[in-house]
Amino acid sequence: MRLAYSLVASGLHDTVAVIGFQKMSEISSAESQERMGRGADIQWESPFGTMMPAYYAMYARNHMETYGTSLEDLAAIRVKAATYGQLNDRAVYRKPVTAEMFTDPENMMSNPVASPLRVGDCCANADGSSCIIVASAEKAKAVCDKPVWVLGLGAASAPVNLAGRDVFNGLDVARRAAEQAYKMAGVGPRDIDVAEVHDCFTIAEMMAYEDLGFAERGQGKELIRAKATYQDGEIPVNIDGGLLSKGHPIGATGGSQIRTIVLQLRGEAGQIQVDNPQIGLVHNIGGVGLYGNVTILGV
Question: What is the 3-class SS of 30-93, one letter each residue?
Fold first, then answer.
């Protein structure tokens, strides 16, 4: 998305297609975890079993120990995701989820994956594809009745090895990418009407609330407790069910997130439509905070 915008803004092209896809159903969960683990440090860290759930489990444990976040708070994020995932015909998981499922030892949602994360805290592998058309203003107006404008872009990276980072207290790449995007767009967190964040795990959405400035550090739990991130809340987040409901076909995920916000800004989101949004935000993370991208769109 960032590259497409740059190619159009430079005048080299007037229309660019951004295509992403991933087919993950042909390999086992163990194989996919091993391959996705290559998005982190495979030389020094992976021998300790640091696949994606294990990495994010460390972030979850720190958030709980530092700020008093509870397992119930994490479960509440999945309950929200399922509330809207049931309304999304593109979602992989379209079943209701209740908080009680997380405390029922007979229910799959409560099964441990990497403590404190349980099955219900983790998104699923999925097949998927996405395509975004990025065009100049002149071209967009000619072919589209409801163009959506790119207002701000931010991107940041971090050392692949966790030893090179100030770790476990949110994702620094998300904070820095958000700062850049807000500055470019000339807006702040309170100006965002709807957001789509990279909820590969429930704790990832919790940290995104704070990294993007929707809540102070450690206060993300208060947003989900108050249902402020629901469709009619103060800052609706992942009203398409997020990755927790849609699944996470890696190469297609970013495009899917952009699509959701574009539909929201055009007023074409159907049952999950937020009331008259003017500015939307997309937050996407690569690896375990290795890369961070934030895109702000408007009408």
Answer: HHHHHHHHHHCCCCCCHHHCCCHHHHHHHHHHHHHHHHCCCHHHHHHHHHHHHHHHCCCCCCCC
51: domain range?
2-298
CATH number for position 29: 3.40.47.10
pTM of the model: 0.96
Classify residue 39 as exposed, middle or buried by CB count within 10 Å of its CB (0-12, 13-18, 19+): middle
Question: Directed axis angle between helix 52-67 and helix 202-211, to 10°?
Answer: 60
43 pLDDT band, cuts 50/70/90, is confident
Average pLDDT of the chain, as a whole number: 95
- How many residues does the structure list for the chain? 299
Distance separating alpha carbons of residues 97 and 8, to the nearest angstrom: 43
Closest by CA position to 113, among listed 187, 57, 195, 163: 57
pLDDT of residue 50: 81
**How many distinct structural domains can be found in the chain?**
1
Secondary structure class of 211 (helix, strand, coil): helix
Between CA 183 and CA 200 the distance in angstroms is 27
Cα(196)–Cα(270) distance, rounded to whole angstroms? 16
Which run of H or of E encompasses 202?
Answer: helix 202-211
